[in-house]
Amino acid sequence: MTTMPSPLKYEREQRFKWYLQVLKYKRPVKETCQIFGISRKTYYKWYARDYGKGSRNHIALKNQPNLKLTHEIRKFIEEQKFKTNYGPLKMKLLVKKKLGIDISTTIIYRYYRRKKLIRRPQRKLPWYEPMKQALIIAKPGEGVQMDIKYVYEDGIRKFQFSVFDPFTEKYHFTILATKESRNAIAAFLNAEKYFGFKILSIQSDNGGEFRGDFHNWLTKQNIPHFFIPKKSPYWNAQVERVHKTIDDEYYQNPMRVWNTPYEWLEFYNFERIHLTLNGSTPQEKLLQ
Question: Are 128 and 211 in contact (CB under 8 A)?
Fold first, then answer.
């Protein structure tokens, strides 16, 4: 029986010319392979044979601590991901800036995926048909306006979910760490409990925080959800106006007398005079 000729072999001296270019002269493997007319698969196959474990030429790779996620780095990434929702590139820059460690975006992304830290954006959700004309408000709970604004607590950006009843002008908000759609449900329930009456319908913009889980939940509760036209915040003028009010009277007021925004909220609903209510407070309007 005749044996088939063995595949093309490369002499040891020739192979080590390849390695010399990569290991000593720092030439990329791709470029080295082009120079010598070989494939990268061939290069790595012979490199594994010549330098693999068990070979007398084996060179142990140096430990690369910067490529490994230690407990401290993992804890830092998880805290910052929850706070900022940074993608792998921004997180890489943040880790480099704060910890002085350079980690690849691939490692960060794989860690995100393994720990289920990826919060998918909701901009791919369906865009609901906007309302064509303003609602006629006849009683408490109708056309309750919802919106969101950024606030800072101890230097950390958070999200204030605002709920405003246009009939009584009662106002409530819930400050949360993220603006995910399910948080709008929590804000709705907190406001309804605070108001003391049922919310009969909701009016909001088409932001992701008011679509998805929140809109589906409203549908299951048989609560109508009206979307204002795109780029038309004046449709939600009352809740937009109360955002300016809380900025003027609390957040941006160096002379404020309230220790927390929730103390101001009590003042707004139970003590503050409202000219649009003919000098009454929202609570007095509710009781009329």
Answer: yes
Domain that holds residue 186: 144-287
Dist CA 252 CA 240 (whole Å): 16
**CA gap 226, 204 in Å, rounded:** 6
pLDDT value of residue 54: 56
CA distance readout (Å), 14 to 20, 43, 168: 10, 11, 87
- For residue 239, being part of any structural domain is answered with yes
Count the neighbouring beta carbons within 10 Å of the beta carbon of residue 237: 13
For the chain, give the percent of residues with pLDDT over 90: 50
How much is the pTM? 0.60
Residue 37 and residue 82: Cα distance in Å, rounded? 49
CB-based contacts of 140, cutoff 8 Å, min separation 6: 165, 167, 168, 170, 195, 197, 286
